[in-house]
Amino acid sequence: MNMQEFGTPGAPSTTPDVEILTGGVAKCTTRLADGRELIYFDDPGTDLGPERSVDTRALDPRPETATMRLDVLTGDWISVAASRQNRAFLPPAELDPLAPQTPANPSEIPSRYDVAVFENRSPSFGPALRTAHGDAPAAADPPQGLDDLGELSLGRTRTSVGRCEVVCFSPAHEGSFGTQTPTRARTVIEAWADRTAALSALPGIEQVFPFENRGEAIGVTLAHPHGQIYAYPYVTPRTQALLRSIEKTGPDLFARILDRERASTRVILSGEHWTAFVPFAARWPIEVHLLPHRHVADFADTTAAERDELAPLYLRLLRGIDALYDSPTPYIAAWHQAPVHVARDSARLHLQLTSPRRAADKLKFLAGSEAAMGAWIGDIPPESAAERLREAVASVPEVTA
């Protein structure tokens, strides 16, 4: 057996309290050596025991929480997080920072695991207060609510209060969400739901965003199968634009979009609770949206049945996208959720998966019109893209839970 799968031999261990979540997923929470929170989510029927190794590393103090600066021309807040310059960049497998610790690899996760979630060591948004667990120094100038952040004037700054978490889908060194088993995918979905609820309850959090970056073409710096969750102190610019559209067109906008798309030729696959489609006005060469059939604000609002269906359906979608070409497709899988405190009855949970891959050996780069002006030019008609994707998904074996 590979010892790296089983944590550091002889390391001290503890037995954290275990909570059983929906679907039989077991959750236990502990702390890393510098006080950051680490949460294990165990598959139902896992062979993991209740004990978890203790993180005994001697770590530097956590960096001070970053600072946001207001771009007065747009109203956007820009977080300046200099500590991110020191994050790992394409390390070899034997130094994988997301693998279970070994004597030769003092990684971020001390125990073997199924799914693990922990606070990012180099976060874009950090804790507001120092605690007994050794969190960063208290925020010098935290946001004072959405009205405060909405004021426009020159030279405004605020502390980048929030939280950034890493979600490890597997202890394997390589892969993505799409390479996981249905059971493991279901565990990750349960982790997303649990973390969405927990992060939404933190003081000062206005929006929670789970996502996966896949491939070096997207800027991924670790081959390990993982995603992230950002908890923002504001409502993001993309969501603010969405809320303006909802305000102009009505609170049932997502229901009407779904009805229209389900009646079109752009549907990729559909189940009892979810439908995936290429949107009417797709920007990217590969762009797929995935919506729940009923209104849910975020993952925490989904039912067990919706989570159960999502796991195999999402896997088949991702594997179909990979079947388009002979090599894995780079993408950003962005799970848009309603803000924590506003538009909960109108902004619907949905996936927007985008890839710049426009051919086997070509990428779409954002040049003058898109990057500078936000004026997009699509390369492929959405109906043509949908037809190719349907054929690719049909070529993939059906995923059963």
Automatic annotation (TrEMBL):
Which Pfam families does this entry report, sorted A to Z?
A: GalP_UDP_tr_C, GalP_UDP_transf
Region entry Disordered: which residue ranges?
Answer: 131-151
Give the Enzyme Commission number. Answer: 2.7.7.12
Q: Which reaction does it catalyse?
A: alpha-D-galactose 1-phosphate + UDP-alpha-D-glucose = alpha-D-glucose 1-phosphate + UDP-alpha-D-galactose
The lineage's top-level taxon is Bacteria
Swiss-Prot/TrEMBL cofactor(s):
Zn(2+)
Q: Which UniProt keywords apply?
A: Carbohydrate metabolism, Galactose metabolism, Metal-binding, Nucleotidyltransferase, Transferase, Zinc
Q: Name one GO molecular function term.
A: UDP-glucose:hexose-1-phosphate uridylyltransferase activity
Q: Does the keyword Iron apply?
A: no
| Recorded metabolic or biological pathway in which this protein acts | Carbohydrate metabolism; galactose metabolism
Low complexity: bias regions = 134-147
Q: Which residues form the Galactose-1-phosphate uridyl transferase N-terminal domain?
A: 95-235
Instruction: Pinpoint the Galactose-1-phosphate uridyl transferase C-terminal domain residues.
Output: 258-391
Q: Which family does it belong to?
A: Belongs to the galactose-1-phosphate uridylyltransferase type 1 family.
Q: What is this protein called?
A: Galactose-1-phosphate uridylyltransferase
Organism of origin is Microbacterium invictum
Gene name linked to the record: galT
